[in-house]
Structure formats: C-alpha cells, structure tokens
Design goal:
Length: 451
C-alpha cells in the first residue's frame, strides 16, 4: 500500500467574489466548496490531509475542523503563489510519504477517480503527474507543453507565446508529486515570471530537466471546474443540481419537473418518493420510501418516514420527525417536533418543540405557543388526541391520549387522557332580536318632520 498526502490550497483571497466571506466557504448544494474537496479526498482514501489557509481565515479553519478533524491546517502568511502555498505545509512534506496530491480549494467537483488516476501515474514511476483537460475555452489556464509525447513544462497563460496559447490541453489544477523528490523540487522553484509569483506549475520543467519522468493524464473538465466569481458559483450550483436530480431519478424517485427541485449535498430519498414541482431541500433531509412531497414545500433538517404526505406549501424545519403515513398539509410549519405515525396536521398550523402521538388530529389553525420571549417549552399531545381548530396550546402543556380540545380554546393546563377540555366564552342567543333591532334603528334614521 502506497502512503499518501493531500495538500489542499485555500489561501487565495477570492477577490473576484467581492465577498466578506472567504471564497472556499461559499456553498454548492449547501456545502462549502472546501467541504466538497475534503469529501473527494476522503473518498479517495488519502492518509493525511493538509489544508493551506490565509492568515486570518478562522472561519475556514473552523469549517475544516468540523468536517475533517484530523486534517492539519497550515497558514500561508503572504500570498506568493501556488508553490509557496504548498510549502506552507513544509512540516508534513518533510515526513516520508509515497504520493503527494496538490488540489485547489476552489475546484469543488474534483473526483476521487481523478485523484486515483494521478496516483496510478506516480505508482508507475512519474515524479510529477498533472491532471490535464481540454476546456471549450482554454483562456486563462496554464498550457501543457509536450515534446515527443512527454510533458516538459506548463506555461501560464500570461507568460505563454502566441504559439503556446493555441494549445488546447491545459492544467486542470490537480497535481501528483512523488514524495521522494517533492520538497526538493518545490524548494527549487523561483519566481521569475510575469507576476513574480512562485508557480507550482514550474515543478514540471524542473523535474523534466533532472531527467525525472513527468506525465499528464486527461480528466473530464467538469471535474476541475474552477470557481473565481459569482457567475461561476451559480454555474457550479447548476451543474451540481443537474447531477443530483439525475441521481435521484436513477435511484427511484419521481421528479415531476426536475428543473424546479433543489437538493442539498446530503439529501437522501427512498424509492418511489414523488416530488412535485418547486420543492427545496435544505441540508439534513432523509426521506423513506413512498413519501409524496407536494408542490412548493421547503424542507430542511427533517426525517420523513414511509408513506407520509407532505404539502403542498409545507415547511419542515430542523428537528421535524414525521412518522409513517402522517399528513402535513398546506401552510403548516413543523420545528423540533416528532409527529407520530398516521397523525394529521392538515391546515395552517405551527407545531414546534412538540410531540404528537400516533393518529392524533390537529385541527386547522392550531398553534403551539412554545416561546415566551425567553425560553422554549414543550407541548406533548397523546395518541388519537383531537385538537379542535384555532386552538392555542400554551407550553409547557400535555394533552393526554384520546383527549378532545374544543375549537378556539387557549389551553394552558394539562388535559387528562380521554377528557374534553374547552376554554371559551358562553354562546348567548336572543330570539327575534334582529327584527326589533331593525325597527329601532330605522326609526332613528328617519328625518324628523318639520311643522
Ligand atoms: C492555476 C494554475 C494554472 C491552472 C489553473 C487551473 C498555477 C501557477 N497556475 O492558475 O496552470 O491552469 O490554476 O484552475 O498554479 N493559492 C494559494 N496561495 C497563493 C496562490 C494561490 O493558496 O499564494 C490557491 C488559491 O486559493 C487557489 C489555487 O491556489 O485555490 C489556485 O490559485 P489561482 O490564483 O486561482 O491560480 P490560477 O490563476 O487559476
Ligand atoms: Ca483559480
């Protein structure tokens, strides 16, 4: 087994994003770009991950620690080019390792297959292996200069001659370096180029000059789509969504109008799930088999058991646990609440910090009053309980199994199992009142006769 190290470069300022947020924290499918890269590297089975960040990138450091706690973090004090950035991880580069992979933090679609390809080249004797691609427009990329079938240099766009610029095979930005020579080569790289930066790409020329083997492998250009500005961020999101929709359908979900359904990186759908048009899945959603999500629903941090019916116009917020065959209808918001199997909350309700028992029926306009401006409290509703329409349940409060709540009640004390509770004014009825009222009012309105 060859040992491996990945160095992910994330110290760029991302100026073209025009953002207060570091570029690599911008999200695709609700996961930061850097998260996508970390995931690919982990899937590729790399032994150690080193990430190079800028001097004040605390938020980036936290995001990395959250997802890949074993990754080491290295600070590049000054932005002096990609080779200089790799050298910020000198501590780990010094340790003996077979394969070193350098990956850019702003190429979120890097695949574990591309990484494996580069490692293959290293295993077969290459000192430097470059992931090349043939994009529609090679402008801005480093050109791969080959002679007699071998890679001899990479020329950055701004340093390239007219003839070199016509080359369509370019540097995708992933590189494999043999651990035996990497540090030595990196330390040899200078900065005599148009930008006065230390270019990682010079590793190719140096290795070639030393008689070491260099290689380029072609990888699909979508795997190394780089994000420098917001338009490219939107394009990456579009590509991500297209792929996820295809995967969801391949795995047995029906999307009636796929283009209008938006997934997160971790959305999990079972088989025979039907998703109607205009549905948004935030992070942390898992949906079991046979669930139908009707149009215009917004769902995040929710688990939905088999056969449930959600929407149209439902909002499930984090901590919503919906039991099998339950119905959550239009304009219903559920937050931090477990809804039992077969329960129905069909219209215009807010249920938060609550448990709702199996087969309970929550009438239209029921509100759990869970917040007093300081603290949140829980509402517990028993099995088969029936909550009449337009009721307010003032938490903390418990409604027993099979209990009935009369419509329009404000319930602030516990209700025993099987009891009826109502809280409203007495209805008053006055027979014949309307006729008397009309006569009296008509007389008042009639103008007084003169003389
Ligand atoms: C780079 C390559 C180019 C390739 C292209 C592919 C070099 C010199 N050029 O150009 O051949 O075709 O990517 O997308 O490598 N970074 C740091 N510290 C630095 C400089 C950069 O961490 O001092 C990081 C950036 O955050 C980014 C990555 O390195 O993630 C690439 O830097 P960038 O300036 O975007 O390089 P390109 O000009 O795109
Ligand atoms: Ca770039």
């Amino acid at each position: 087994m060859r040992t491996s190290l990945a160095v992910i470069l994330a110290a760029g300022e991302g100026k073209r994003m025009r953002s207060a947020k570091p570029k690599v924290l911008h999200e695709i499918g609700r996961l930061p770009m850097i998260g996508h890269v970390l995931r690919a590297v982990e899937t590729a089975g790399i032994d150690h991950i080193a990430v190079v960040v800028g001097p004040a990138d605390e938020a980036v450091t936290n995001a990395i620690a959250g997802q890949a706690p074993k990754a080491s973090i290295h600070v590049q004090r000054e932005r002096r080019g990609t080779a200089d950035a790799v050298l910020a991880a000198r501590d780990v580069l010094r340790r003996p390792v077979d394969d070193i992979l350098v990956i850019f933090g702003d190429t979120p679609f890097i695949s574990s297959a591309a990484i494996a390809c580069l490692r293959d080249k290293l295993a077969n004797g290459a000192a430097v292996a470059v992931g090349g691609m043939r994009p529609e427009n090679p402008h801005g990329y480093g050109r791969l200069i080959e002679r007699n079938g071998s890679l001899i240099a990479i020329r950055e766009d701004r340093d390239a001659s007219e003839a070199e610029r016509s080359i369509g095979f370019v540097n995708g930005g992933v590189m494999g370096l043999s651990g035996a020579v990497a540090l030595d080569i990196l330390d040899t790289i200078g900065n005599s180029n148009d930008q006065g930066e230390f270019y990682l790409t010079d590793a190719v020329r140096i290795a070639h000059d030393r008689g070491l083997e260099t290689a380029a492998v072609e990888i699909p250009s979508r795997d190394v789509f780089g994000i420098n500005d917001r338009a490219q961020l939107a394009e990456a999101e579009r590509q991500f969504q297209t792929r996820r929709r295809t995967e969801a359908m391949r795995d047995g979900a029906t999307l009636i109008d796929p283009e209008t359904v938006f997934f997160s990186h971790d959305t999990a759908l079972g088989r025979d799930v039907v998703v109607e048009p205009n549905v948004v899945f935030g992070p942390g959603v898992a949906i079991a088999d046979g669930v139908t999500i009707r149009a215009f629903s917004h769902i995040e941090g929710a688990h939905i058991e088999a056969g449930a019916l959600i929407g149209p116009f439902a909002r499930l917020r984090p901590g919503a646990e919906i039991g099998g065959e339950a119905h959550i209808g239009n304009f219903v918001e559920i937050k931090q609440a477990a809804i039992g199997p077969g329960a129905k909350i069909n219209h215009l309700s807010y249920v938060g910090d609550a448990t709702v028992g199996a087969k309970a029926n929550i009438g239209a306009g029921t509100i759990t009053c869970n917040y007093d401006g300081f603290l949140k409290s829980r509402t517990e509703i028993g099995e088969r309980a029936f909550i009449g329409s337009n009721s307010s349940l003032v938490a903390p409060v418990r409604i027993g199994d099979d209990a009935y709540i009369g419509s329009g009640s404000v319930i602030s004390r516990d209700v025993a199992a099987g009891a009826l509770a109502l809280e409203r004014g007495q209805q008053v009825e006055k027979p014949g009142w309307v006729e008397r009222f009309r006569t009296r009012m008509a007389a008042r309105k009639r103008p007084a006769r003169l003389g």
